[in-house]
Amino acid sequence: MRHLFIIVFVLAFAKANSQQTVPQDTTQVEIKEEIKTPTAVDAVKSFFKNFHARDTSALKESMLLDIQLTSMTIKGEERKISTTGTSLFLKNLAAIPDSIPFEERLIELSYDSDSQIATVTATYEFYYNEFLSHIGTNKFTLFFIDDKWVIVGIADTRIYGS
Fold this sequence. Notes:
Structural class: alpha+beta
Shape: globular
CATH class: Alpha Beta
Number of strands: 6
Distance between the termini: 110 Å
């Protein structure tokens, strides 16, 4: 009888303890992954990454078709304006032999932007075959189309002999 009493007591105690509420940590952690929309400056940096990689397909995707690239070449007192269409620009880039290195080193970037249009200005030094060829300034105009910045115009200066 004594054993029966102990068994009943233990079971009753276990049942009572099993119904106690256990405090739970109700702190909820909200994990937000911020999706950053690329900026107009990011689009220009991507342009140069693809330019240096000679990736004409990626460059074509970053620009509207048939934009004009307008350049002012400055040699001493002489100033010459030239325009190149997208197709010729990409063709000329693809024609540069892989054995000839080139790099357009961006010195300083600045931008002006609202939610639909932006301009990005980049001063640069251009190295061709590892020698400084010229310096200048690039001016990119971009529109925000289909959730990305697209280049709609490029103007640059090319200053030789400075």
